[in-house]
Amino acid sequence: METLYQESPYSASQDLKVTLQDSILVFRSQETDKKSIFLSNVDQPFNFNIETVHFFNPKMDFPPQVVVNRLKIVLEKVLVTYDFLAGRLKLNSQSGRLEIDCNAAGAVFVVASSEFALDEIGDLDYPNPAFRQLIIQSLENLGPNDQPLSIFQVTSFKCGGFAISISTNHVLFDGMSFKIFLQNLASLAFDDKPLAIVPFKDRCLIASRSPPHVAFTHPELYKLELPIDGVYSCPPLFESTQEDLDFKIFRLSSNDISYLKNKANANGTRPSTRITGFNVVTAHVWRCKPLSRDVEKNKERVSTLLYTVNIRSRLKPPLPLSYCGNAVISAYASAKCGELEEKPFFELVDMVSEGAARLTDEYVRSFIDWHEIYKGFVNGEFLISSWWILGFAKVEYPWDKPRYSCPLVQPKKDIILFLPNIDGVNNDGVNILVALPAKEMEKFQFVFHKFMERSP
């Protein structure tokens, strides 16, 4: 069996010896209309920052200082189309909703350097918590209501390689729309290229209906009492725990994934079941996570798995593929812990596939309308967030494609990440990031390997 796991050799205290050299506000290169941008009910709960880092090998024609100069100019250009990146969040006092004030207050651009070479900071495809030193978190000289929605930082390494780190408030983009933003940023970085894809920015396409109509029970959601100001805070599922967590990567190769697909096929799934790499890996992880706890005492406990699904093609009419904003919602699958241990694998794959198939146009509209009436957040035991096939590392810049692109993470017990591997030749495996208390991690590791064992 090719399945491997790797314990974290890193800690958040690892010093990458980063020195900040400059920090400025960047403004659009030409005037745009000042306006407020509507945020849909899919956007509203995502009021927290998402950070990514994109590592680049040295390239003779593009030393870090040349990249810094080029990127600053490119940001000034891209802020004309993506004017909301230079705006600020505000609460509309009449509607009680968050919206983006496109006030041209500026995006942040930071230049920094590290005393290390790129090859000295560890495996790039292992989400080292210390990589968060490659992006500043906020600007102390700006007030709490004037914090930027986007921060860009270029950190040079002594080998001539560099990292471009980007922090954006999640209300701005989902994974697909952020990938399109990267493609546009990269295209404008060439001297003679226009935008690669014109983003579609009207978020009213997924506004709630009037009057709202909730046609389903939505067990994947729960109502939460909002504070007096009406602003969503970080949902509990995304909050950091005070527990000490082990932090490991479980690596599945393309052969491992093929084995899981064959295992699902061998027992005859329903004709409607989609036996994809994502579905089989998700089913395998779903079985292992609840079983990492004491199942003998909890056989009747229901485990609800959540996983995000792109809804662009599921609506009628479909959203434009270039829709700019959040167009993902949580699908769910539920089963008792005892059933997860005993059911044949193909039945788990069936349930995962069925959870995504449930997201029809009417279900999605009902989901959006539920948020209009009740407000609230997703409700489940844990969430799988997949960065596996987003393809950030396939974006072509003048200074080449990234050596690796990944989120800057703070491991959380109830969120499991699917990340791409770094193998540029056979980039079809997956790295599964899991963070659990030590005893649960020991059991998770045992069952993860147990259910991957091949028959003799």
TrEMBL record:
Gene3D superfamilies: Chloramphenicol acetyltransferase-like domain. InterPro entries: CAT-like_dom_sf, Plant_Fungal_Acyltransferase. Belongs to the plant acyltransferase family. This is HXXXD-type acyl-transferase family protein.
